[in-house]
Amino acid sequence: MSMTRREFAQLLGLAGAAGLLPLQGFAAKKQPADMYELGNFGNVRLLHMTDCHAQLQPVYFREPNVNLGVGNARGKAPHLVGNHLLEHFSVRPGTLEAHAFSCLNFQQDANRYGKVGGFAHIRTLVERLRQSYGNEHTLLLDGGDTWQGSGTAYKTRGMDMVKAANLLGVDVMTGHWEFTYHQEEILQNIAAFNGEFLAQNVFITEDALFEGADEYVFDEDSGRVFKPYTIREMGSARIAVIGQCFPRTKIANPARFIPDWTFDIYDENLQALVDEVRQAESVDAVILLSHNGMDVDLELAKRVSGIDVILGGHTHDGMPAPSLVKNNGGKTLVCNVGSNGKFIGVMDLDIRNGKVQDYRYRLLPVFSDLLPADAEMSQLITDIRTPHLDWLQEELAVADELMFRRGNFNGTFDQLICDALRERQGAQISLSPGFRWGTTVLQGQMVTMEHVLDQTCLTYPETYVREMTGEELKLILEDVADNLFNPDPYLQSGGDMVRVGGFDYVCDPLAPIGKRVSQMTLDDGTLIDAGKSYKVAGWATVGARSEGADIWDVVADYLRDHQTARISKLNTPKLLNVKGNPGIVDYS
Amino acid sequence: MTMHRRTVVKAMLACGALVGLGAVIPGAAFAARNKDAFSSDDQAKAMQALFDAEPANSQDIVLKAPSIAENGAVVPVTVSTEMTGVESISIFVADNPTPLVAEFMIPAGTKASVATRIRMGKTSTITAVVKADGKLFSTARETKVTIGGCGG
Fold first, then answer.
1. In CATH, what class is A393-575?
2. Which residues in chain A have their CB less than 8 angstroms from residue B123's CB?
3. Domain chopping of chain B, boundaries
4. B-chain residues near A313 (CB < 8 A)
5. Interface of chain B toward chain A, CB-CB under 8 angstroms
6. How far is B152 from chain A (nearest CA, A)?
7. Using CB atoms, which residue from A210, A480, A541 is nearest to B6?
8. How far is CA B107 from CA A338, B79, B92, B135, in A?
9. Is B79 exposed, middle or buried (0-12, 13-18, 19+ CB in 10 A)?
10. Which residue from A minimizes the CA distance to B13?
11. Which residue of A has its CA nearest to B144?
C-alpha cells in the first residue's frame, strides 16, 4: 500500500506542521481566508491562467532552482530563482508566498501547505473573483497548453480539457500544445469550445488554400486560420484582446500534425492589428494573450507599441509582479503566470477617458487545501477519469527523493526517465527533451502511472534507439543550448536543455553556438570521441515517427522492476560563467 | 466581386513563370556570366560575377524571411521595394554551398515584389540585392535553421 502524505508526515514527526491541522500551521499566521479576498480596483478585471498542461487534479509543483538569464536578460525577471526571486519581489522567506513562488525548502513546505491547482479548486477561486468584482466586468483568459499533459487529455485528444474549460467559463484562449493533435481534431475541439480561440500569427499555406482550406480558414484574404482578436464591452470600457500562439510550434513540435498551417512572431502584422483596433474599433485598452514565452514578450513589448498588457505563458514563469516595458507608444505590462494550474493572475485595470489609467496586479497561488472543491467540476473530473482509473492509479515505485523536472538542466525525474531508457533499451547514452511541464513527486510518495504520464504524456511518445557519433551528439546539444541561451529572445524556442543520461559535460551558456558544450564524458570517465559511434536511446522525435515502445511504458516497466524510484547519479553539466548569476541556487 | 486570395495566388504563379522566362532569354555572354555567378561557392565572388560591382546598403528594400525557419528545405522569402527603375532582384544565402539562389528580372512597369521559397542547410545571412537604374542596393537578415524539438 502506498504511503500517503499524512503517513509520511507522521513518520517524519511533522504532523503538526504538515497541513493536517491547517489552523495550527500557516493558516493561523497567514489568515488564508484573506489571501483570496482582494479589494476591487478599477473597472475591468482580467483573470489569467496558462500552461495548466491538463492537470485537472491538484498537484505538487516545484519552481526551478536554475533559470539562467543571458545577455540583457541576466538578473532580470523571469531569470531569478530562490532567495534572489524573493528579494526582488519583496517576498518574505518562510511564508506561504515564498513557498509558492520559489523552490526553497520545497519538500518540507509542500508537506506543510499541501497541493496546488486542480480545476475544482480553480473554479471555486475564479467564481469568487468574478462574483466579488461583477461578472460583466470580468474576463477569464487562458494562454494555452491546456489540452495536453495528462493521460485523460491523451485518451480524449484534448476534449476532456475543452469540457473542463467550458465549465470553468474560459472566455478567450490561444494555444501551443493544442497543435500537437491533428488539424481536423484541433478544429473539432475549437468548435466544441464555448469561448473564442484567437491567434493573429497562424497562417494557411498557399498549397493548402489551393486544396480547399478556404472552407474553414477565418479569413481567406489575410490567410489567417483563426480569428485574430475580439472586442469586449465591459461596462463603460471597450477592450480588445489579441491572440498570439506559440510562434515556434512547427519547430519545437511535429510539423506533420499541422502541415497546412504556418507560424511565426509577425511583429509587423501585430503592430498593424494593434493600430487597426485602436483606430477602427476605437478601443480603450489592448490586451495581448500570448504564448510567446516571457523573454520574447519582453522583446516584443519594445518593438510593438500600443499594447497595454501582455498576459503571457509558455515559459512557465510564475512572476509575482508584471515587468514594465517602455516603447514608442508608451508602456506595456508583461505578465507570466506559471504552470500546472498553480496560479491565477488577477489584473485589475482602471480604464477611463479612453485609456488605462492605473492597475493592480496579484498572482494568486491556488492552494487546494484553502479552496473547497467545486462540486460540479469535481463531478466532471470524476466522469472524465473513471474509465481510465485503473491505468492512472497503478502504483509503480516509492520516491526515494524529491522527483521534479523544472529547471534549465536535468531534474531528478528526468534522470529516472534517462536511466529507464538506458536500462530498458540497452543503450550507453539517453536523451530526454527539456520540457517545462511535468509535476513534482515528494520524497516518500508513491510514484503512480499518472505521475509518469504527467512527465511524458504527449502525442508522439514513441522511443528510439540508434547509433550516433560523438559529433552528432554534440551538434544536438549545441543546437538545443542555442534555443535556450541565444542572447536574442527571438532566436530562442522556449523549453530547457535536453536531458542526458550516461554522460556529463561542461556548459558555458555565455559562449556562442558551437562553443557552449565541451568535455562530454561518459559515466565511466572516458571522453566521448567525435568520430566514434554510440548507442543512444530517446523519445519524442519531432521529425519522422519513431518505432519503439511508448515512453511511459518504458519508464513504468523500469519502476515496476526497481520498486524504488532512485537515482544514483544526476547527469547535470558543470557550468562556466554563472558565478553571481541570480538565476541559479543550490547547484553543484 | 473581389478577387479571392486563391485566384491571386494562381495569377502570381503565372507571373512568376513569365519572370522566370526573363532569366533565360538573353544571349551567350549573359548565360556565361550567370553560370559563373550561380556556381560560385563564395557570396562576394558570386556578386562580382553577376554585377561586376558591390551593392550599397539600403533602407528601401523590404526583405521578409522568418527569424527561425520552420523547415530549412523551404524557407519563404519575399523581397519588395518602392524604388523606381528596378531591373532585377537577386537573393543570396551566404552559407549555402552556392550562395546565389535566384535572380528575378523585373520588366519595366512591373511592381518590384517577388516571393519564393529557398533551401537552407544551416543558419545563414540572407541578402537581397536590387538593381535599379543601373545602381546596386542591398539589405540582409539572418535566418536560423535548427533541428528543433524539446519545446516546452
1. alpha beta
2. 513
3. 5-143
4. none
5. 2, 4-6, 9, 66-71, 76, 123, 144, 146-152
6. 4
7. A210
8. 55, 16, 21, 16
9. buried
10. A206
11. A491
**pTM, two decimal places:** 0.91
Residues A259 and A183: beta-carbon distance below 8 Å: yes
In chain B, the residue whose alpha carbon lies closest to the alpha carbon of A316 is: B152
Say yes or no for a CB contact (<8 Å) between B148 and A251.
yes
**What does each of the 588 residues of chain A score in pLDDT, given as a tens digit?**
333 444 433 433 333 333 333 344 444 444 445 789 999 999 999 999 999 999 999 999 999 999 999 999 999 999 999 999 999 999 999 999 999 999 999 999 999 999 999 999 999 999 999 999 999 999 999 999 999 999 999 999 999 999 999 999 999 999 999 999 999 999 999 999 999 999 999 999 988 988 888 889 999 999 999 999 999 999 899 999 999 999 999 999 999 999 999 999 999 999 999 999 999 999 999 999 999 999 999 999 999 999 999 999 999 999 999 999 999 989 999 999 999 999 999 999 999 999 999 999 999 999 999 999 999 999 999 999 999 999 999 999 999 999 999 999 999 999 999 999 999 999 999 999 999 999 999 999 999 999 999 999 999 999 999 999 999 999 999 999 999 999 999 999 878 999 999 999 999 999 999 999 999 999 999 999 999 999 999 999 998 899 999 999 999 999 999 999 999 999 999 999 999 999 999 998
How many angstroms separate the CA atoms of B47 and B36, rounded?
A: 10
Residues of B in contact with A252 (CB under 8 A): 148-152
Q: What residue spans define the domains of chain A?
A: 23-60+114-381, 393-575
Is B9 in Cβ contact with A491 (below 8 Å)? Answer: no
Measured CA to CA, the distance from residue A32 to residue A29 in angstroms comes to 8
How far does B80 lie from chain A, in Å, by closest CA?
15
We find that the CATH architecture of domain A23-60+114-381 is: 4-Layer Sandwich (3.60)
A306: which residues sit within 8 A by CB, 6+ positions away? A271, A274, A275, A278, A286, A329, A330
Task: Match domain B5-143 to its CATH number in 3.40.50.920, 2.60.40.2470, 3.10.25.10, 3.90.1150.10.
Answer: 2.60.40.2470
Closest CA in chain A for residue B10: A210
Q: Please indicate whether, in this complex, the C-beta atoms of B71 and A250 are within 8 angstroms of each other.
A: yes
The angle, 0 to 180 degrees and rounded to 10, between the axes of the packed helices A412-425 and A449-456 is 100
Distance (Å, whole) CA A368 – CA A237: 34
Is the separation of the CB atoms in A210 and B6 below 8 Å? yes
Q: Looking at chain B, which residue has its C-alpha nearest residue A405?
A: B152
